[in-house]
């Protein structure tokens, strides 16, 4: 049940955050392997990117890649949060005194994240391809011509086999290790501190909300450099043998 509820919760959030993922993907691909000032900046900032994509590609383009994004969130976070929850419930993350152990929490978060991300890597790759696809006047990065998630998975599998489907998976693991360990560790630690300091009522939903906000900031700061690398690896073009060009 933990796995199912974790996956469904992540999917619910994805419906609202997917437009941000589209914008993030395109901004991360912009200027790839080009010196600053030598390329046209189609997206000057987050707000300009939203307006530009909506104006040129249409408002529906802000939800590009939604199907693989939902599936990836269900698989990845169902496994990640479910596994971490089982470890926490089993007492593996606490010391003999009953306090949360940050090293154990970080290690469990990293391991749980790796399992979920590696299994869902083909879905994440296709999501990146679809979100990068744009009209020629605002296109950045390599432009794949996928028609949808299943067509993309089928085409990549037929051309390059299982190796092609998991292309970029190892390069994406540092992103997940850093992000997952930071998120789960800071979330649990912040909840404990809020409860210990009696800042908010112990059973209040505000405790989880405050912990999630602190955790989210920490994740962005720690994970962004690895996220840029991962996005570019997944979106790189390949030759007939499936090797990066």
From TrEMBL:
Output the SUPFAM superfamilies linked to this UniProt entry: Mitochondrial carrier
Q: Which UniProt keywords apply?
A: Membrane, Mitochondrion, Mitochondrion inner membrane, Repeat, Transmembrane, Transmembrane helix, Transport
Q: How does it sit in the membrane?
A: Multi-pass membrane protein
Q: Where are the Solcar repeats?
A: 1-90, 100-193
Reactions performed catalytically: a dicarboxylate(in) + sulfate(out) = a dicarboxylate(out) + sulfate(in)
Q: What exactly does this protein do? A: Putative antiporter that exchanges dicarboxylates and sulfur oxoanions across the inner membrane of mitochondria.
What's the protein here called?
Answer: Solute carrier family 25 member 35 isoform X2
């Amino acid at each position: 049940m933990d796995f199912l509820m974790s996956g469904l919760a992540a999917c619910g959030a994805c419906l609202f955050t997917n437009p941000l993922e589209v914008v993030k993907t395109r901004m991360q691909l912009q200027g790839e392997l080009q010196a600053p000032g030598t390329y046209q900046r189609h997206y000057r900032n987050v707000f300009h990117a939203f307006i530009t994509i909506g104006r040129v590609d249409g408002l529906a383009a802000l939800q590009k890649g939604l199907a693989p994004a939902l599936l990836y969130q269900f698989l990845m976070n169902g496994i990640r949060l479910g596994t971490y929850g089982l470890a926490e419930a089993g007492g593996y993350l606490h010391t003999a005194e009953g306090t949360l152990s940050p090293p154990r929490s970080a290690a469990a978060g990293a391991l749980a994240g790796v399992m979920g991300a590696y299994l869902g890597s083909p879905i994440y790759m296709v999501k990146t391809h679809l979100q990068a696809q744009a009209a020629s006047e605002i296109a950045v990065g390599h432009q794949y011509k996928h028609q949808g998630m299943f067509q993309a998975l089928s085409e990549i599998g037929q051309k390059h086999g299982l190796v092609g489907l998991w292309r970029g998976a190892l390069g994406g693991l540092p992103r997940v290790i850093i992000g997952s360990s930071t998120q789960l560790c800071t979330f649990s630690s912040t909840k404990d501190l809020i409860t210990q300091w009696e800042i908010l009522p112990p059973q209040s939903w505000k405790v989880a909300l405050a912990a999630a906000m602190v955790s989210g900031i920490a994740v962005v700061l720690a994970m962004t450099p690895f996220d840029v690398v991962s996005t570019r690896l997944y979106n790189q073009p390949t030759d007939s043998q499936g090797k990066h060009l």
